[in-house]
Specification:
about 250 residues; Rossmann fold
């Protein structure tokens, strides 16, 4: 089965590294014209070269996805360059730090929710004027933490990712009349990403793999394949769904 996105345009937030980078490349290899935004991790030269080899040069713009005015400005500029935004992947996010609720400052709570959930709201709202009235795809990158509450000190992050599930389902109903599907993927342990390099020490990774039914960690391409499928016409009758990508981690 070939997933053909020729003639489509795609925007991946937080697309310079890790899962976002893999998604950007996979979308380009499926034929889409791709733009990414980044804040702390600009696209590496290898990604730029690989995307260009797949079709057209990658558009990359620095953007703070928690800054409403900046989001509107940057996405407007990207949409003008692409001509439209047919596919939006809300991937920007992060845990920031492991902090217990008892010790958590109110400002940190709001920061985590802004980075992971409000950012998706800002980006979705900014993109909608540039999506067509009969076809569109919004794919939110959530997390296993949204289901199980995450590890120690991850409650704020888990709350934001659980909120992503509600955002996905609400948008799916709201945008169906425009032919826009809205789905989410919820990755588990995905290595080769800044998230787990910073927040999951090697011993914790080994322990987590023991709880995975398939007995291995995931990697960014394990996520990007599902995103491309959700963006394709093969998934045209799927909306409001959460696809779990965790190797069976929460079955054990």
């Amino acid at each position: 089965m070939t997933l053909d996105l020729s003639g489509k345009t795609a925007l991946v937030t937080g697309g310079g590294v890790g899962i976002g980078s893999a998604i950007a490349l996979s979308l380009a290899q499926a034929g889409a014209r791709v733009a990414v935004t980044y804040l702390t991790h600009p696209p590496e030269k290898e990604l730029l070269a690989d995307v260009e080899a797949a079709g057209k040069p990658l558009i990359a713009e620095k953007m703070d996805a928690t800054d409403e005015n900046q989001v509107n400005e940057v996405i407007g500029r990207i949409a003008q360059e692409l001509g439209s935004v047919d596919i939006l992947v809300n991937n920007a996010g992060g845990m920031l730090a492991r902090t217990d609720i008892a010790d958590m400052k109110t400002s940190f709570w709001h920061q985590v929710l802004d980075v992971n959930l409000t950012s998706a709201f800002f980006c979705t709202r900014a993109v909608l004027p540039f999506m067509g009235d009969d076809w569109g795809r919004i794919i939110n990158i959530a997390s296993l933490a949204g289901h199980n509450g995450g590890g120690n000190g991850a409650t704020a992050y888990a709350t934001a990712k659980a909120g992503m599930f509600g955002l996905t389902r609400g948008l799916a109903k709201e945008l169906a009349s425009r032919g826009i599907t809205v789905n989410a993927v919820a990755p588990g342990l995905i290595l080769d990403t800044p998230f787990h390099e910073e927040f999951t020490p090697p011993a914790a990774q080994v322990e987590a793999i023991e709880r995975i039914a398939l007995k291995r960690a995931g990697y960014p391409p394990d996520v990007s394949g599902s995103v491309v499928w959700l963006a394709s016409d093969q998934a045209s009758f799927i909306t409001g769904s959460i696809i779990d990508i965790n190797g069976g981690q929460y079955l054990r």
